[in-house]
From TrEMBL:
InterPro entries: Rce1/LyrA-like_dom (IPR003675). This is CAAX prenyl protease 2/Lysostaphin resistance protein A-like domain-containing protein. The keyword Cell membrane does not apply. One of its GO terms (biological process) is CAAX-box protein maturation. The chain crosses the membrane at residues 12-36, 281-298, 310-328, 334-353, 365-386, 398-419, 431-464, 470-489. Residues 420-480 form the CAAX prenyl protease 2/Lysostaphin resistance protein A-like domain. PROSITE patterns: PROKAR_LIPOPROTEIN (PS51257). Keywords: Membrane, Transmembrane, Transmembrane helix.
């Protein structure tokens, strides 16, 4: 069998490398879209299941600070939480309880407030709302002991007591009270419920890319939109946001098979809910994971390739699973925090790879040339994508210092931990850089634009690391590039720097 000359093999290797980069970029975009489709379908299915059962996605049961807006009362009254809810001791002063929710509540659909509260005739319980977060506040006094409240029937006023129109949506909802000294106000639960016992849904309406040109939603049916999945993900998300301004109660799915996706998600959710007490295997899995990390750290395999593979997997498999699985949300629970802590502690405890030169913070001048190229590339992309009317959104000094520390930790994990362990496995240098960059990009799932940006930057930074083993130029390029892109690009190109479930919030 004929063998290619050495030069030919090298050319073939670079062609394969270039094709792998193109294929990986396409797969990253497809992965982001798949996560987005699944998120939309689950969200729509969950809402439909709740409404069909006479329930609602807007319910509150204050039992701790995180159940309130800002984690506290707005006012100086003393309060406490118990098994019955929130109890506020009256001191003759007015306070407000903020009920948290995302987006806006469409009062054409969810127009009644069910309030489980105990007040006194002199408590002067009032609803305080805004139609937009930047809009004026509106007030409506409640009758003592009112439980099911039709917001359209309330006498709404502004802060000066003048009559105003009934709000059509809510971007803020607070319960205000002023119980006399010695009395107490208690809030056990609250929820926004549909105006009618049976909720009707509009047919799925396809929405083409570009400017929105859809019919106004019907007042007696929940609108449903099928977003086109042939456009960039960030553009589809921006389109969804614009539709929500028009119809806050709208349901969304993506693709021509939108209805089928939602039906499948609803079936899966209904099947899961049918199991009243599902077996929670997360804590046993965490215990096994920690035990495996301890064993691997104390007794690493003698075989270099096996050791490299297992140490890389031990350090990054758990964070990878948390991000891909959507466990990183707005308020991570204790299990998620412990998994991340265990993985980080293991990664930081690993000793350097013996057959590699020691890594340095600074390197030769050449170590900064390639990372500098990513900064120049970021400036070019920002100049291309920036729209002057959007303005710049530069971080303040505290945020910049925090991000510097976060970027240093990320690059340590990708370079010192992952890339060095891949060298033990025996991969060629270019494929070490490729694998490290791909993992780095996947850790930003499902943020499509950020995945592609980190993959492009990671290819350069990982190659620089393999060649020069200098960390600080890579960290500096990471921080500078990210800051430029996030400050300059509009949301239609780069929506945010969030990952996992936080990206969809």
């Amino acid at each position: 069998m004929m063998r290619l000359p050495e030069r030919g093999r090298d050319v073939a290797g670079w062609i394969a490398y270039a094709l792998a980069i193109v294929a990986a970029a396409a797969c990253l975009d497809a992965l982001a879209w798949q996560a987005w489709r699944a998120h939309l379908a689950r969200d729509a299915a969950r809402t439909i299941l709740l409404l069909d059962r006479g329930d609602t996605p807007y319910r509150w049961a204050p039992r701790r600070e995180r159940d309130l807006v800002a984690g506290r009362l707005f006012g100086s009254s003393a309060y406490e939480f118990d098994e019955r809810g929130l109890r506020v001791e009256g001191n003759g002063e007015t306070f407000q309880v903020g009920l948290p929710f995302a987006g806006a509540i469409d009062l054409a659909v969810y127009g009644r407030l069910e309030l489980d509260a105990v007040d006194t005739p002199d408590a002067q319980t009032t609803l305080v709302v805004r139609e937009a977060l930047s809009g004026p506040m509106r007030f409506a006094r409640l009758a003592t002991g009112a439980r099911m409240i039709d917001l359209a029937s309330l006498p709404w006023t502004d802060e000066f007591g003048s009559a105003v129109s009934t709000p059509k949506r809510l971007a803020m909802l607070r319960v205000q009270a002023r119980p006399p000294r010695g009395d107490a106000f208690r809030l056990t639960a609250a929820r926004m419920v549909p105006m009618h016992e049976r909720v009707y849904y509009a047919p799925w309406m396809p929405v083409a890319p570009g400017p929105i040109n859809v019919a106004e939603p019907s007042a007696d049916a929940v609108p449903r939109y099928a977003l086109d999945d042939g456009q960039p993900l960030e553009a589809a998300m921006a389109q969804r946001d614009r539709l929500l301004l028009q119809a806050p109660a709208a349901l969304f799915a993506a693709g021509v098979d939108a209805a089928e996706r939602v039906d499948a998600a609803a079936s899966a959710l209904a099947l899961r809910d049918a199991d009243a007490r599902p077996l929670d295997l997360r804590w046993p899995a965490l215990a096994l994971y920690v035990a495996a990390l301890v064993a691997l750290r104390l007794r690493p395999p003698r075989h270099a390739r096996l050791r490299g593979a297992l140490e890389a997997a031990g350090a990054l498999a758990a964070p990878f699973g948390l991000v891909i699985g959507g466990f990183v949300g707005d308020n991570p629970d204790a299990w998620t925090a412990l998994v991340a802590t265990a993985a980080l502690a293991f990664a930081l405890s690993l000793r350097p790879v013996d057959n590699l030169p020691p890594w340095r913070w600074f390197g030769p001048p050449a170590a900064g040339f390639a990372p500098l190229a990513t900064v120049v590339l970021a400036i070019g992309v920002a100049a291309w994508g920036h729209r002057a009317e959007d303005g710049f959104h530069w971080p303040d000094e505290i945020m910049l210092v925090r991000y510097l520390a976060w970027a240093a930790l990320q690059q340590y994990l990708i370079c010192v931990v992952l890339a060095d362990r891949l060298s033990l496995v025996g991969l060629p240098q270019r494929w070490i850089a490729f694998a490290a960059a791909l993992v780095f990009a996947l850790l930003h799932t499902p943020n499509a634009a950020l995945m592609l940006a980190t993959f492009a930057g990671g290819l350069i930074w990982s190659a620089t690391w393999v060649r020069h083993r200098a960390l600080l130029p890579i960290v500096a390029a990471h921080v500078a590039s990210a800051t430029i892109l996030l400050a300059c690009l509009p949301p239609e190109i780069l929506r945010s720097a969030e990952v996992s479930a936080r990206f969809f919030l």
